[in-house]
Amino acid sequence: MGTMLSFQEVTKIYPGAEHVKAINELSFDLEDGEICTMVGPSGCGKSTAMKMTNRLIPMTSGKILIDGQNIDRLNTIELRRGIGYVIQNIGLFPNMTIGENIAIIPKMKGWDEGRIKERVDTLLDIVNLPPEEYIDRYPRELSGGQQQRIGVARGMAIDPPVMLMDEPFGAIDPINREHLQNEFLKIQSKLKKTIVFVTHDIDEAIKMGDKVCLLKEGKLVQFASPEKMLTEPANDFVRDFVGGDRTLKRLNLLTIRTATRPDPPVVLETEKSAIAGTIMTETGEKHLITVDSEGRLTGYIDHEALKKDGETIEQIKCETEAFLPDTSSLKDGLSEIFTHDLEFLIVVDDSKRVIGTLHTDDIKKILRG
Amino acid sequence: MTSNFFTALLRKFVPAIVAIVVVLWLYKYYGAMEYTLKNLAEFFRLIYEHLILVIISMAAAITVGVTLGVIMTRKGLEGISPVIMAVVNVWQSVPSLGVIALAYGILPLLGLSGIGIVPALIALFLHAVAPIVRNTFAGIESVSSDVIESATGMGMTKKQILFDIEIPNAMPVIMGGIRTSTAIIVGTAPLAFLIGGGGLGFWIFTGIALVDMGIMFAGAVPVALIAMLFDYFLALLEKVVVSKGIQADQYA
Question: Which of A136, A287, B46, B147, by CA, is between 20 and 30 Å from A121?
Fold first, then answer.
């Protein structure tokens, strides 16, 4: 880990508009493997800032360092080939097949056929489009969402450490967009690219970013983690921009784990059913969570269940859907609690072992800070 | 799908077959066939001259036309495009006979001969270059700016963008221009005879002068067949040079 991308007092003044600084002494550092979402009102310079990174727009003054190297010292073509580039309208080459589109930069880099083929297959697998089905098709035969995935795959063709994405999901309908965002975050959690991600949508910025870079009229207003931007907006502009519902937005960022109450009232389902009643009277719990010998969730017991006949707890327990993994967002957790009118939600790990419970009180406490 | 295919086939071929049958009947009826068989050696020489006229002027028009079209789309050269366009348009707007006559009249002023195959080639080339220039320009201009931006951002050089992206994607439009130019050249080529350029125009004009339908048809029918042959050949070529990703769906 270390700084991968560094903007140092980067300024852009367009010829013919000398009195306006399109980008005004922008400075920030981005760690290796982080996504920085650039967001702001239109005309704030977010795209300009991004495009200076691969010199599609030359900067007027300042420095941009990639992995410690000043980009001004690099050959433009080499610089660009080393940076993945994905834009809103995708820009796939209509005259080339999907395979040829992805292979274009590896080919220019002089990779041999076998390596290119292998790489294209890997990338298509990563973006969930089976290579044998898609490799020989043409862009126009694909849906917008599929084209966008190819765009992302093409951007990653030579496994560049840094990627630039200009509203990559901007032209996609909301349902597919959310799907692509989640898919992309999943890919990113494995590949750990350093990404500059331009968007005009603050919700997307908060969801996708490890850091959010909020710009206004070419000036950096706040550069912070999404959590910090929501809890400690630097000024009124940030507060307005993130919106009045910023508290609710935080629910999206926080995982259930952060509010999980440990030591849940669990009982082994192989125990005698009488024991459940005893525990409930002693502890005052209205519900007991039943688990198998591995600690995995199997159901629950309430007062109604106790009335049933049965020797063991397994015979009288009720099935339940009221559980979520601890990696889900608090928003999903809260939504489950409200939708099913639950007293609490059972929190499990990946193998469905009960870790704890989620109560609305604890969520409130967390949001209050 | 199949029925569509057959209707399309019928629509495409029936009129052509009817036209060919009618023309061949006239060809025989007026004694053009007899005349041709009697003068077979001359027939082949005229065909040869005619093909030379068409092929060479075509090759020149494609080379120069595509080059000029590309130049007009290059950054920093936008200023000269109206000039290029004006010049090529003027030559196309002058009637065919006028172009031939102008070549005959102007070339001697430049110290060149106004008679023979060279002025004929120059006249044909100038007359036909405009559609190729125009379509190359329009075709390249119409390539989506997103495509160009991503190519640039990915690190393709200007030359790679031109040859791998711009020209291939403009190809359907460029080919359209080439087919139009070919039609113009094939249609104008018989006039080359008037300034000593040779070709099948010799029989056509002789036939007209002698009011001999046989001789005229002996020249006119091969001219028509050559036109059809070139168009057919270019249609085939289009299938080869235009990527499947951008070909218009036929019969779809």
Answer: B147
Structural domain that includes position B98? 32-241
Residue A363 in tokens: 């969520």
Split at pLDDT 50, 70, 90, the class of B141 is very high
Task: Quote the tokens at residue A27.
Answer: 């400075």
How many separate domains does chain B show? 1
Domain boundaries A3-254, corresponding CATH code: 3.40.50.300
Q: Is the pLDDT of residue B4 over 70?
A: yes
Question: Rounded mean pLDDT of A233-243?
Answer: 87
In a domain, B213, yes or no: yes
B32-43 per-position pLDDT tens digit: 888 888 888 999
CA distance from start to end of chain A: 29
Tell whether the model's pLDDT for residue A286 goes beyond 50. Answer: yes
Q: What is the CATH number of the domain that holds B150?
A: 1.10.3720.10
Contact A324, A291 (CB under 8 A): no
Instruction: Give domain A257-368's CATH number out of 1.50.10.10, 3.30.70.100, 3.10.580.10, 1.10.12.10.
Output: 3.10.580.10
- Domain assignment of residue B142, yes or no: yes
The answer to which of A39-48, A119-128, A316-325 has the lowest mean pLDDT is A316-325
- Contact residues, chain A, for B152 at CB < 8 Å: 56, 80
Residue B251 predicted with pLDDT over 50: no
A324 touches A354 (CB < 8 A): no
Q: Quick check: A139 and B155 CB within 8 A?
A: no
Q: What is the dihedral of CA B119, B125, B130, B133, to 10 degrees?
A: -130
> Closest by alpha carbon to B89, among B67, B65, B107, B56?
B65
Virtual torsion, Cα B16, B22, B23, B28, nearest 10 deg: 140
Tell me how close the Cα of B168 comes to any Cα of chain A, in angstroms. Answer: 7
Query: Does the ipTM exceed 0.85?
Result: no
Instruction: Tell me which residue in A83, A94, A97 faces B169 most closely, judged by beta carbons.
Output: A94
Is B154–A105 a contact, with Cβ atoms under 8 angstroms apart? yes
Q: How far apart are CA B165 and CA B151, in angstroms?
A: 8
Who contacts B202 (Cβ-Cβ below 8 Å, separation ≥6)? B46, B193, B219
Task: Decide if B146 and A89 are in contact by the 8 Å CB cutoff.
Answer: yes
CA A45 vs CA A60, A120, A291, B111: distances in Å? 14, 34, 55, 61
**Residues B50, B57: Cα–Cα separation, whole Å:** 11
Compute chain B's Rg from CA coordinates: 21
Q: Which residues pair with A66 in a beta bridge?
A: A5, A69
Closest CA to B95 of B195, B184, B177, B183: B184
Alpha-carbon torsion angle B228, B229, B235, B236, nearest 10: 160
Q: How far apart are CA B238 and CA A24, in angstroms?
A: 52
Give a yes or no: residue B193 inside a domain.
Answer: yes
Those residues with Cβ within 8 angstroms of residue A252's Cβ, 6 or more apart along the chain or in another chain: A203, A206, A207, A329, A330, A331
| Three-state secondary structure call for residue B71 | helix
Listed in sequence order, the residues at least 6 apart from A192 whose beta carbon sits closer than 8 Å to its beta carbon are: A32, A33
**Domain layout of chain A by residue ranges:** 3-254, 257-368
b/e burial code for range B215-226 (CB count within 10 A of at least 16 → b): bbbbbbbbbeeb
Q: Does B151 touch chain A (CB under 8 A)?
A: yes
Residues of chain B with C-beta less than 8 angstroms from the C-beta of A95: 165, 168-169, 171, 243, 245-246
